[in-house]
């Protein structure tokens, strides 16, 4: 009995003594939700890093705090920021890494690599290229959120759901950067008509480490379709009509999409056959024609197929001729299917010379009305 009591006492003591030796209270921390990088205006050879965190204290004058610091690298600037902070700064909760367009055009992998090597850096941190200065954006107070980072993070999620942009995390960018046959992309944010209004409907194109251009609006949707990431949103197009006085429009709500890529070499020429399919519901149809007529539905699908093929082909021509950059990732298929043809060092040149055929298949499942 005494032995049992001793054992129980020891167990109880161990439970009471168990704790984290390095535990810190929230009041002692700045939980960084967003981090941004600019080129320093005073010293262009250095970077200006800005972090944003909630203050937590109920008696704080502001619900958030932004701290900026300069440095020759991201890590060096982070150390300088810590010297300005009254609490320990932790990056374990970081959601978005903001990158100014100026920095993006100089190269971003050194900054991404630095965060990935940090024990607190998560590969799931989302990347975003900013039209202007990051430091200015991070001080804006949005109407529905205490932190602009949380507001922008929600915008990224919704824009992705509407099939306007991909969600590029640090891990995804790093994988694309290090993978032969594909070039990285990052969503691009610009200001709207109001100081606290933002638009995320563009995509920054990268070739290797550096930003080379942007895809705007409908091009972003085409990119999502071609990469097989489309999962929602709408496709609006003109509907052909025999009445020249009418300009009917057709809007389809996208439920899901699929992409299938096949490659072949004919007479030393690379051919890429890309099949894209969308499952949709009719959302809007401004023509007086009856939507429950089978022929009308077939005409709608035909018009949607032609429209989808046209906008996707237009994007591919732009990537091949203007940028000579395979941001879709066709090279991954060529590398596997035709290793004797694929040249990792010159793939973008091979991509620009490839013959790419797009075949669309848009199906309308429901018309939203009854006869």
TrEMBL record:
Residues 202-368 form the Spore germination GerAC-like C-terminal domain. PROSITE patterns: PROKAR_LIPOPROTEIN (PS51257). Residues 22-190 form the Spore germination protein N-terminal domain. InterPro entries: GerAC_N, Spore_GerAC-like, Spore_GerAC-like_C, Spore_GerAC_C_sf. Keywords: Germination, Lipoprotein, Membrane, Palmitate, Signal. It is found in: Membrane. One of its GO terms (biological process) is spore germination. Residues 1-24 form the signal peptide. Its main location: membrane. Pfam families: Spore_GerAC, Spore_GerAC_N. NCBIfam families: spore_ger_x_C. Belongs to the GerABKC lipoprotein family. This is Germination protein, Ger(X)C family. It comes from Natronincola ferrireducens.
């Amino acid at each position: 009995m005494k032995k049992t009591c001793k054992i129980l006492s020891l167990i109880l003591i161990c439970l009471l003594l168990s704790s984290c030796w390095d535990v810190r209270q929230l009041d002692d921390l700045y939980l960084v939700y967003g981090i941004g990088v600019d080129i320093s205006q005073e010293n262009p050879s250095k970077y200006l890093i800005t972090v944003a965190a909630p203050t937590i204290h109920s008696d704080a004058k502001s619900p958030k705090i932004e701290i900026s610091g300069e440095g020759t690298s991201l890590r060096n600037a982070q150390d300088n920021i810590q010297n300005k902070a009254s609490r320990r700064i932790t990056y374990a909760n970081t959601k978005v890494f903001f990158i100014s367009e100026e920095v993006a055009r100089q190269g971003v992998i050194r900054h991404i690599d630095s965060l990935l090597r940090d024990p607190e850096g998560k590969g799931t941190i989302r990347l975003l290229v900013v039209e202007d200065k990051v430091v200015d954006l991070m001080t804006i107070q949005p109407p529905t959120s205490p932190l602009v980072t949380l507001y922008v993070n929600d915008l990224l999620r919704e824009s992705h759901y509407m099939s306007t942009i991909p969600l590029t995390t640090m891990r995804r960018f790093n994988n694309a950067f290090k993978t032969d046959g594909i070039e990285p992309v990052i969503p691009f944010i610009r200001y709207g008509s109001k100081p606290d209004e933002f638009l995320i409907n563009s995509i920054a194109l990268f070739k290797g480490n550096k930003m080379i251009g942007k895809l705007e609006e409908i091009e972003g949707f085409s990119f999502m379709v071609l990469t097989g990431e489309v999962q929602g949103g709408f496709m609006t197009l003109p509907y052909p009509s025999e009445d020249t006085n009418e300009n009917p429009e057709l809007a389809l709500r996208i439920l899901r999409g699929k992409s299938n890529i096949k490659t072949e070499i004919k007479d030393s020429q690379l051919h890429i056959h890309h099949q894209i399919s969308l499952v949709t519901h009719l959302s809007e149809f401004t023509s007086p024609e009856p939507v429950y007529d089978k022929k009308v539905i077939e005409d709608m699908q035909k018009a949607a197929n032609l429209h989808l093929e046209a906008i996707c082909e237009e994007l591919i021509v732009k990537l091949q001729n203007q940028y000579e950059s395979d941001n879709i990732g066709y090279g991954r298929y060529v590398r596997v299917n035709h290793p004797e043809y694929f040249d990792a060092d010159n793939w973008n040149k091979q991509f620009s010379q490839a013959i790419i055929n797009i075949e669309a298949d848009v199906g309308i499942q429901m018309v939203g009305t009854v006869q």
